[in-house]
TrEMBL record:
Residues 36-438 form the Ketosynthase family 3 (KS3) domain. SUPFAM superfamilies: Thiolase-like. The active site is at C218 (for beta-ketoacyl synthase activity). Keywords: Acyltransferase, Fatty acid biosynthesis, Fatty acid metabolism, Lipid biosynthesis, Lipid metabolism, Transferase. Pfam families: ketoacyl-synt (PF00109), Ketoacyl-synt_C (PF02801). The keyword Transferase applies. This is 3-oxoacyl-[acyl-carrier-protein] synthase. It comes from the Eukaryota. GO terms for molecular function: 3-oxoacyl-[acyl-carrier-protein] synthase activity. CDD domains: KAS_I_II. Belongs to the thiolase-like superfamily. Beta-ketoacyl-ACP synthases family. Coiled coil: none annotated. GO terms for biological process: fatty acid biosynthetic process.
Length: 438
């Protein structure tokens, strides 16, 4: 008896199967409509070259003090190298100034014994320790240390960094060169991963909401805050700890920026004059370190628990000028797009902005392009005297991945303090708003 024909054994044509399946299924319903929720700032925390803590940093900032100093060979963190190599490396650096976090056990100093040196902190590099310290202050300022499981599940962390722990990488490379690989710490990888700053904060407090770490160089802190705000707006969390952290004052980081001709070299003998945003004598930025953390919260959630509200987060704009790996486009298109989008999302007109905290790092090209972009956006408002503009990097240097977060706190405090002043004085002010440019 003849077997079945070959045609009978073949499957139906694929196109016919797809038509048959698709015709038998109902189309998906549209996703549920999402009404963006309002986001407010309820807690602040920072570790900066001006000091450890918001109160210390803010007081020194408005008093006109500077956190920039001359560096020494010990600042290069070349612990596994001999003295001759450390000294030779130091001598080769063209920039010998930096904005370092003051360390010690006194008020306003970063206590390394508390955040870095205990036995359980072997997996915590300095940039992680800075983030833990800043986040702790912000959470206590917000009075948000939840114990209920539901509250922990709706609290997340969004803290990013620029480079991680380069000094750990340098030490590990030296071990390989000297054939001492077996001495490499099992905590090497957790110490260098940038997302571990966010991870350690979440583990310390048991937060099980979104855990996020932006890595976008100098825009990291601003992106981390903007991303966190959107997570709250769309209902992923009710509370987010957001910010940036950085600790890149080490031999390899400084040498790398020196080789790219990004750092200042003219003011090694007068460190406090070296970071000079928008000044005609600027010649490069000053590398700095630290961390900034803010607690963002859904408005009704904050009001229900009686939280102190510093400011409202209104909008967030991002862009890329698609031009060069380090240089902005000469017309400032990237900054113009970012500011335009932030204003549009905020539903705020440019003339309603009272203060701009500029990114201006003290580089000849960058500051000029940014000034042009600000003038383009704010036009007569920028030149009328009604718009306050400053770059606080003159006091703290460039904190790289932490810059956007620390300077966001400065902007919030500037508006918050002025608002409090207007509430005391017999003066009415209908609108107070700020724009952080990163």
């Amino acid at each position: 008896m003849a077997g079945p024909s070959r045609r009978m054994l073949l499957s139906p044509p694929l196109s016919r199967c797809i038509r048959r399946i698709s015709s038998s299924l109902e189309p998906f319903e549209p996703p549920p409509a999402v009404t963006p929720r309002r986001v407010v700032v309820t807690g602040l925390g920072m570790v900066t070259p001006l000091g450890c803590g918001v109160e210390t940093t803010w007081k020194r900032l408005i008093d006109g003090e500077c956190g920039i100093r001359a560096i020494t060979p010990e600042d290069l963190k070349m612990n596994n190298f001999d003295g001759e190599t450390r000294l030779h490396t130091f001598e080769q650096l063209t920039s010998k100034v930096a904005a370092t976090v003051p360390r010690g056990t006194n008020q306003g100093e970063f206590n390394e014994e508390l955040w870095l040196n205990s036995k359980e902190h072997r997996s915590i590099a300095r940039f992680i320790g800075y983030a833990l310290c800043a986040a702790d202050e912000a959470l206590r300022d917000a009075n948000w240390l939840p114990t209920e499981q539901e509250q922990k599940e709706m609290t997340g962390v969004s803290i990013g960094g620029g480079t991680g722990s380069i000094s750990d990488i340098l030490d590990a490379a030296q071990m390989i060169c000297e054939k001492r690989l077996r001495r490499l710490s099992p905590f090497f990888i957790p110490r260098i991963l940038i997302n571990m700053a966010s991870g350690h904060v979440s583990m310390k407090y048991g937060f099980q909401g979104p855990n996020h770490a932006a890595v976008t160089a100098c825009a990291t802190g601003a992106h981390s805050i903007g991303d966190a705000a959107r997570m709250i707006q769309f209902g992923d969390a009710n509370v987010m700890v957001a910010g940036g952290t950085e600790s890149s004052i080490d031999a390899l980081s400084i040498a790398g920026f020196c080789r790219s001709r990004a750092l200042t070299t003219k003011y090694n003998s007068c460190p406090e004059e070296s970071s000079r945003p928008f000044d005609c004598g600027r010649d490069g930025f000053v590398i700095g370190e630290g961390s900034g953390a803010i607690v963002l919260e859904e408005l009704e959630h904050a009001k229900k628990r009686g939280a102190k509200i510093y400011a409202e987060f209104r909008g967030y704009g991002m862009s890329g000028d698609a031009y060069h790996i380090t240089q902005p486009h000469g017309d400032g298109k990237g900054a113009i797009l970012a500011m335009t989008r932030a204003l549009k999302q905020s539903n705020v007109h440019a003339n309603q902005v009272d203060y701009v905290n500029a990114h201006a790092t003290s580089t000849p090209l960058g500051d000029a392009v940014e000034a042009k972009a600000i003038k383009t956006i704010f036009s007569d408002h920028a030149s009328s005297g009604a718009l306050a503009l400053s770059s606080t990097k003159g006091a703290i240097g460039h904190l790289l991945g932490a810059a956007g977060a620390v300077e966001a706190i400065f902007a919030v405090l500037a508006i918050h303090k002025v608002r409090n002043l207007y509430s005391i004085l017999p003066i009415k002010r209908s609108n107070l708003s700020f724009l952080l440019l990163k």
